[in-house]
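[Q] Does anyone have a clean structure-token version of this?
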Amino acid sequence: MSVLKKYFLGDSVLWIITLLLLLLSIPAVYSASAMISHKSYHGDMHFLVRQISAVAFALLVIFIVSRINYKLWLKLIKFIFPIIIVILLFTLLTGVSHNDAKRWFLIPLIGIEVQTSELAKIALIIFVAASLATKRNDAEVHDSKVKIAVWTSVLTIGLIFPADLSSALMILVIIGIVMFIGSVQLKKIYKIILIAGAAFVVYMLIAEAYHLPGRLSTWTHRIEVFLGDDTELHSDETYQLDISKMAIVNGGFRGQGPGNGTVRYLLPQSHSDFIFAFIVEEYGFFMALFIISLYGALFYRGIRIARKTGSLFAAYLAIGLTVAIVMQALINIGVSVGALPVTGQTLPLISMGRTSLFVTSFSIGVIINISKMTDVSDDAESNENVN
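[A] Here you go.
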């Protein structure tokens, strides 16, 4: 155990939670994707190999990031964030589209696609945390940084929502929570919400007329289906949710057993968007409760780490990253049980999705580093200068 602690520094409970979620993803993704793999790749091992590789990569990312002093991101974010904004612009205008959603940016020369809203989410959390922690003893400088954070948040969310409304709304809530905890005046938080809401309304009014990029028809349809009367809706409109809820009911307490799930034959996204329903069908209610408990424990450890640190930047950063992971998990689970409209959000550390897995792993690595730095020294500066 002492040997493991030597290499896996920081909060050991958070390490265990992360490892359990990642290990759960391997049989879940394999079983859920076997049908698609067999049809597309003439064998059922393609996605299993990919997921094992993804898990190994995620652990490597966490291990490396957990050894990088979190204060480095305080210095680098002012260089990284402008790049993220440029990438968001390119994605909005010329991004790669999958399932009629233009959310991906193809990295030149490398040929790897990344979901830019995921990168923007973590970059904005770091930027806002850095802004809120800057020179709190100098009211004028602090107010200036807060204003910059507010308008930067509006710009970032505005570039995301035409192609990815669910991510934009989630980021809006996350940033609002961080700002609220950072004692930002409520009127400034309301300003973000009002400006974002006004921009959304204006966009809806002119999007169809001028053929602006976005998924207006998809948003309105999903909301209408979610709020509509089941007796008046066509079966095709509620197909995904009906299959997901049926899988959860079929799972019962004990589940149908590994490999006996039916969702993989009926839903093309059973290994990503609806993997929670698939897990419940095969492993039952107790596995669902176990997974939810793991995310609950992750939330508790993240908030505990934030409370223990003496650094405002570290506290805001840990809170923002923790809330981002757990909120995404709750949204995915909420969609699976029919409590929320279909969004396309993956289940962190379990669903297949390279960018999401990288961002989640990076976030956990940062949180672990904060816990490590807190354990090493409790005399961190309470105010940090982003300049």
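[Q] Thanks! Anything notable?
[A] Residues 330 and 347 are 8 Å apart (CA to CA).
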